[in-house]
Automatic annotation (TrEMBL):
One GO molecular-function entry: chitinase activity
Source organism of this protein record: Selaginella moellendorffii (Spikemoss)
Name of the protein: Glycoside hydrolase family 19 catalytic domain-containing protein
TM spans (from-to): none
GO biological processes: cell wall macromolecule catabolic process; chitin catabolic process
Residue ranges of domain Glycoside hydrolase family 19 catalytic in the record: 1-181
A Pfam family that the UniProt record links to this protein: Glyco_hydro_19
InterPro entries cross-referenced by the UniProt entry: Glyco_hydro_19_cat (IPR000726), Lysozyme-like_dom_sf (IPR023346)
C-alpha cells in the first residue's frame, strides 16, 4: 500500500516539503516526518487506526458529520483524523473526503498526499522544523495532550523521539534542540 513512487508523487505536490532551509534543516524535516509516520503506522504496517471506535467528530468549527458517513478515525501515514481535517483535505484535493473518509485508506497516493498536506498545511509540523522549534513541536501538533499533556513524554512520544534520532543519524544530521514535549 505504501509505495515509494506514491510518496514521491505526493511530496512533489508540496514543493517546500523537505526543501526549505539549509541541507541540515531539510534532512531534519524528512527525519521528523518519517519518525512520526513510523509511530503512527507501526512501521508502515497499518493503514487504518487500530481503535476504530473513535468517531472524531467535532462540529464546533462548522464542519458537520454527515449521516451515513464513516467515522473519522485515523487513516494513512500520519493517521489523518477528525471531520474537519477530512473536510479540509478533501477541499484541497477537490474530493468529498467528509462523506467518504475511507478513500484515504483505499488509495496509496491519496494516503501519502493527505499526510504531506497535513504536515504542510494543517498543522505546525513543517514550520516547527524549518523555524527551529524542534522535533517536540511536531509531536504536540500531531497528538497534543495525548502524548505531551502530562509534563513528560509518554511512551509513544518517546518512541517518536527515538525514531527521529535514528533517522537523523541515518541522514547524517544532528537532531537539534527541543526533541521532547
Amino acid at each position: 500500500f505504501y509505495t515509494y513512487s506514491d510518496f514521491i508523487a505526493a511530496a512533489n505536490g508540496f514543493p517546500a516539503f523537505g526543501s526549505t532551509g539549509s541541507l541540515d534543516v531539510q534532512r531534519r524535516e524528512l527525519a521528523a516526518y518519517f519518525a512520526n509516520v513510523k509511530q503512527e503506522t507501526g512501521t508502515l504496517q497499518f493503514i487504518r487506526e487500530i481503535n476504530q471506535n473513535n468517531v472524531y467528530c467535532d462540529t464546533r468549527g462548522g464542519v458537520s458529520c454527515p449521516a451515513g458517513a464513516m467515522a473519522y478515525y485515523g487513516r494513512g501515514p500520519l493517521q489523518l483524523t477528525w471531520n474537519y481535517n477530512y473536510d479540509a483535505a478533501g477541499r484541497a484535493f477537490n474530493m468529498n473526503l467528509l462523506q467518504n473518509p475511507d478513500q484515504v485508506a483505499q488509495n496509496g497516493l491519496l494516503a501519502w498526499r493527505a499526510s504531506v498536506w497535513f504536515w504542510m498545511q494543517n498543522s505546525n509540523c513543517h514550520t516547527a522544523i524549518t523555524q527551529n522549534q524542534g522535533f517536540g513541536a511536531t509531536i504536540r501538533a500531531i497528538n497534543g495532550v495525548r502524548e505531551c499533556g502530562m509534563g513528560s513524554e509518554t511512551q509513544p512520544a518517546q518512541n517518536r523521539i527515538n525514531y527521529y534520532r535514528d533517522f537523523c543519524s541515518q541522514l547524517g544530521v544532528s537532531p537539534g534542540e527541543n526533541l521532547g514535549c
